[in-house]
């Protein structure tokens, strides 16, 4: 920020650059402010402002960059807002897209505990913990589960979902008959966090429970296997591992009567596709089970869980919550999203409000913590990939008040107890996900603060202009049980659990025959049995949370983590800056592809850069599953082979988030091929937008690339936040556009977009037409993508709008022969 004398009063003049290159000028004395187009150096800005003031044209409204005071007053209405919220609402740095005060009364009351025909010991325990009456949805869930119906419980955060499933499960268990119920959590930390509540409930009725996971010590394992508990708290990784290995744990799963899956929304994508098969395998061992799913955020909960569990699920919904929260949706007109998020955190920290900052990725969580620490804030990172001990220390420090803020990823959307939370700052997520994050604040009746920090990206600009649409865009969880690689591994694991009969094998005939040819399955006495050594060789390295190989990450001789391919190529190439636990490291040695490792060295705390990979991707259509007309364009849903090549990188300056210097080429490009699913179409050619362009060749080359970007970025919330799971490729001026699942084999994200492409095209056109930038290439708020592998080169905004306009008008375009 630069300071110069105001030409009107001589006070300090502040000059900030807006995102689209203009100068926002503010006088600290007379408070006059203006927006100068095409501003050059500071002297030119001051001369231009002086001229405009002399002519009486200075101090013009800030042209949509900030709200006028009258607009904010109207937005607030008669609500009395406190000082912290008022300072943010009347900011001169950002655009306030929406304000509301969210009051969440408790859910509707239901019957008294004593009137539900419960075991007296359960009733006594409920009263002991302060529950004399159930909420209506809890009573409905209890009746549904007790009646043997597989049930989905969808209710807000902190509204008593645990009691809703735990009471009927404990009521239905007959003690001393071995493991009768599995309660499954997506992470070990959440399972451990909830285990004490479950154990306390169980002790009151002489039912036993225990946690069995990767952190359970051998002595405890032996004890619970020799004398199995009635309820086992675990995760699907453990179940998968022990079932296919036929361990002693697998032998006690035959009596399961209840399977409870908490935080069911977590099982979207590849993880959920694996879990679908694991539940199918568990049912083969245990027979009929009453299945229960619980979640605070699922939209279309019954449909998703029916797909996840492989059976029809009865839906029980609860509403309400507790507490009162000030909610503000903020668009960073004149700074970067991370600068806005750090500033919101600073304001909350200054008021001693304990705050959770939710970021969209590992890298963003790390970068935000680095910037906030530089400004003196007490903050630590909480994300997957950090050691369990480190994460637990973060949770403990926040809970006891010695830590004021956490920079996290969705790991802390889950119900881990971190104590009182006053404020939540979130990057853009679907509204139902935001509601779960907001539910972290004001649980104990205090005033809560929640800020949605829109970003410097297309969907954020769309919500700035259409804030009401945000509240209609909810997350759609998705899985792809027919992912061919998931099926390949899970069918082999299923045969290891218990040999397949011919009827079971018929449903997976191609996969079974492939395993048979490879010698991993053998047909004996009418059943397919595994060759143990060969099957183990394939299954032992398989992770149900991802597919494919991983690069091990080493600091010195210590293994500190791993990253799955293909994303590992982008983050762990030679000289990449890797972010971990608030520190930066440089990759000094990459063993890919021979050694499958990356070796790190620590960088100084003041190192000013991180890196962004440059890459090329080549697609090949292997099979078309189905096709349809979207307006006039033929769109195919396909099996694709993708060849990814990381050939270089750029340095990005921390804070400004802008590339500096020239791109750096890698000595040895890193290549990886994988098969996935996606959609392909040949977009129609725009006419006048190319013909009237200053550089028609650049417009023709850039129109499809920009259209591909905006279709992915603009569809983000239409598909339930799936854009982060998608990749895209446009092939020069051919018009061929591919949008595919980033996960090997497919995760369902592109299938979700395939079914909603009409809405994505319309929203993409709105983003391009409403963006005020005057650059032919566009800007980060319309055509740029932070995932772009060629540094957002070869883009043309107006011509891309022409492409989408032709699609919306129904111009015919067939897929033809892509010539790939």
Automatic annotation (TrEMBL):
Q: Which InterPro entries match?
A: DEAD/DEAH_box_helicase_dom, Helicase_ATP-bd, Helicase_C-like, MZB, P-loop_NTPase
**Which is one GO molecular function term here?**
nucleic acid binding
Q: Which GO terms describe its biological process?
A: interstrand cross-link repair; nucleotide-excision repair
Q: Which Gene3D superfamilies match?
A: P-loop containing nucleotide triphosphate hydrolases
In this protein, which residues make up the domain named Helicase C-terminal? 343-490
Pfam name, any one: MZB
User: What keywords are assigned to this protein?
Assistant: ATP-binding, Helicase, Hydrolase, Nucleotide-binding, Nucleotidyltransferase, Transferase
Query: What is the annotated signal peptide range for this record?
Result: none
Q: What is its EC number?
A: 2.7.7.-
Which EC main class describes this enzyme? transferase
All copies of the Helicase ATP-binding domain together span: 142-316
Q: What protein name does the entry list?
A: Helicase
